[in-house]
Write a structure and sequence with these properties.
Elements: E1 2-7, E2 12-25, E3 28-32, E4 39-43, E5 46-52, E6 57-62, E7 65-70, E8 73-78, E9 81-84, H1 87-129
Parallel strand pairs: 1-8
Antiparallel strand pairs: 1-2, 2-3, 2-5, 4-7, 5-6, 6-9, 7-8
């Protein structure tokens, strides 16, 4: 068995035994098995799949990150991830989360534009005074 840990910056999302783990790297997907050599790779956004102890297939939609296999431990570190055992539900959850992220990003861009405009306006006022 493999010990799979998927860690986000603020929490450990998955910490369980697995029979195998399938990841996506920039140059394609790969499968890690218990006797696989120690291994490190970058991960691209996509679906990470594993088979749990009972033989059920589990899925995690992951952001870019890194995977490290040392002995029987597979450690995945990503910025964002969502776990589900159903791909359709996972797809819906990811779409909903990215919609929220897009809205937050738009709000952040608008706030940054307002700050920039205020800075330019004040800079021009200072220039006129001197």
């Amino acid at each position: 068995m493999i010990r799979l840990r998927i860690a986000l910056p603020h929490q450990v999302l998955v910490d369980e035994a697995a029979r195998k783990v399938i990841c996506e790297a920039p140059n394609g997907s790969f499968c890690l098995l218990p006797r696989h050599i120690d291994f490190t790779s970058a991960l691209v956004p996509g679906i990470l799949t594993w088979v749990d102890e009972a033989g059920a297939e589990m899925f995690a939609a992951v952001d870019q990150g890194i995977v490290v296999k040392v002995g029987a431990d597979v450690r995945v570190s990503v910025r964002r991830a969502v776990v589900d055992d159903d791909l359709e539900t996972l797809n819906q959850t990811v779409r909903r989360q990215y919609r929220t992220l897009d809205e937050n990003e738009r709000d952040a861009r608008a706030a940054a534009a307002q700050l920039e405009a205020g800075f330019v306006r004040r800079f021009l006022e200072l220039k006129e005074r001197s």
